[in-house]
Amino acid sequence: MTTSTAKTNKYSATNYLLYLLSKRDYSEQELRQKLKQKEYDIADIDSAIEKAQTNQWQSDERFCTAFIRYRSMQGIGPRRLKQELKLKGVKDWLINQELENAEVDWFELAEQIFEKKRSLVWDLKAKQKMWRFMVSRGFYNDHFSHLMDLDYSSDEYE
Fold first, then answer.
1. pTM (2 decimals)?
2. If you average pLDDT over residues 6-15, what whole number do you get?
C-alpha cells in the first residue's frame, strides 16, 4: 500500500476538464489553474488539455471570440477586454487578432454607453467624471472624446 501526498480524485483530469467545458468555454490557463486546484498531476493536466485541444473541445481562439462578444455586449471597451484576456492567459497576438475581427463598432458602443450614463447637468465636474467612467470601461479616448465637446444644453438634447 503506497501513500501519496497528492489528493486522490474521484474523476480523471480529462473527465473533470470535460465537466468544466460543458458549462462554458475556458482559456487554457484557466483550465490548468482549475486542474491544479484539484491537485491533479502535471502530466495528467498536460495530457487532458492536449486531448481537449486535439478534439477541438478547448480553443483559446474560440474562448477569446466568445469573451469579446459577451463582454462588449455588457458595454466593455477594447482596452479593458485586452487586459482581462491577458489575465486569463490569452496570447497578445490572438487578442489583437480577435479584437480586430470582432464585429463591434467601438465608437457606436462608446456613444451608447456615454448617452446612457451622461448626467443632465453638463459642467466641468460632470465631464471629468464621465471621462474617468469611459476610460474605466476600457474605451480609448478617440472613441468618446468627440462626445465630450458637444453642447448638451441645447434644445435638441432635452
1. 0.84
2. 77
